[in-house]
Structures are given as C-alpha cells and as structure tokens.
User: Which sequence fits this backbone?
C-alpha cells in the first residue's frame, strides 16, 4: 500500500480534479460544504462514495452511487447545508472509540466496493447508536434535488421521480452469512487481486 498525502484544501472548484484518478472515495470530513463538494464530484465522475459521520454518541455510514439508475447520491440524503445548533464535532467533542468503530465500518465498506462481497450499504444508511449499542438501517430514495446538483457539477443528468414517496423507509430482511451466494464469499486471493490496481481517496 502506498499513501500519497495531498496538502490541499478540497473545494467545489477543485474536487473533480482531486477525485478523478481514484476508484473509491471515503469521506469523513466535518464540514457539509466539503461533503457536498465531494458528493457532487463523485456523482459527476461516476465514482462510488463511502460516507461516514459521527456525533457525540452516534455514527452514520452510507455508500452513494448516484451515477447509477435509481440510486441516491449524497444530496438525496442532505439536499442543503443543515444548520448546526449543537456545533461541530470540534465544538462538542466526540468519543475516540466511536470514531474507531465507525471508521472501521467505513473501511470495510471501501474494501467491499473494491473486492465485491456480501450486501453493502449502497443506497442505505446505517446508524450506530453508542448509547444503546445497537444499529438500524434505512433505505434512501433518490430525489429531484440530486439532478440539479449533477447539472451544476457539469454533467447532464435528467430528472426522475423519487424511488419512493418518502425520503427513506426502514430496511428489513437482512440475510445471514449462510444465505449469501457463493460469489459473496471472501477469498484471500480475491482480496489481493482486487486491491492490486485500485486507488482510494480518503
């Protein structure tokens, strides 16, 4: 593995240039302006985005492939910059162990995007509650605002109706490992082959 540090601030103006040469993008920034810039660039360039965020006692992870038919992008989930009454993570503080848990889950999703196994979080949002130590998963729907974002990012993206009338709905029917098709079973060789020619921007 080779790490290439980029000593530059990502903005809406340079996001596409920074992301263009990578296969998967992992975003954990503490700024909605940066998250929207990353999401818009991934949508325009057709790159999968694995997004993770934490609060004081909660973590969220989702994979966005808005370039695919009927798949939501980041703006389907967060159309505009929301107001932050409680402040940023730097203001209110977070638990380091929570960042480690959510970061590890995000890393696992990145591996899944590269190698391809199991059922990932594409189009779904997983919420981890550290107070009750439980997870729940929601399915995200595509909404019209995503089309305008893609257009602003320089890509022709026709508008479509949402996949469902609500922004999201509870996810059910999680399959056990024994129910996975054989192609979803992880093999050491497949992991090495998958990573050999892939680049990840984090």
Assistant:
């Amino acid at each position: 593995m080779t790490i290439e540090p980029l000593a530059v601030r990502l903005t809406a103006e340079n996001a596409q240039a920074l992301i263009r040469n990578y296969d998967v993008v992992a975003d954990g920034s503490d700024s909605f302006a940066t998250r929207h810039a990353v999401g818009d660039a991934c949508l325009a360039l057709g790159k999968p985005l694995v997004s993770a965020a934490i609060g004081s006692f909660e973590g969220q992870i989702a994979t966005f492939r808005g370039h695919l038919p009927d798949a939501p992008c980041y703006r389907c989930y967060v159309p505009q910059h929301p107001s932050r009454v409680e402040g940023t993570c730097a203001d209110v503080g977070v638990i380091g162990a929570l960042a480690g848990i959510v970061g590890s889950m995000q890393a696992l999703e990145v591996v899944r995007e590269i190698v391809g196994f199991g059922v990932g979080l594409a189009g779904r949002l997983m919420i981890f509650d550290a107070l009750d130590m439980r997870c729940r998963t929601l399915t995200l729907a595509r909404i019209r605002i995503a089309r305008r974002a893609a257009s602003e990012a320089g890509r022709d993206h026709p508008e479509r109706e949402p996949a469902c009338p609500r922004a999201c709905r509870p996810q059910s029917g999680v399959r056990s490992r024994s129910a996975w098709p054989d192609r979803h079973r992880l093999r050491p060789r497949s992991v090495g082959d998958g990573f050999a020619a892939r680049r990840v921007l984090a």
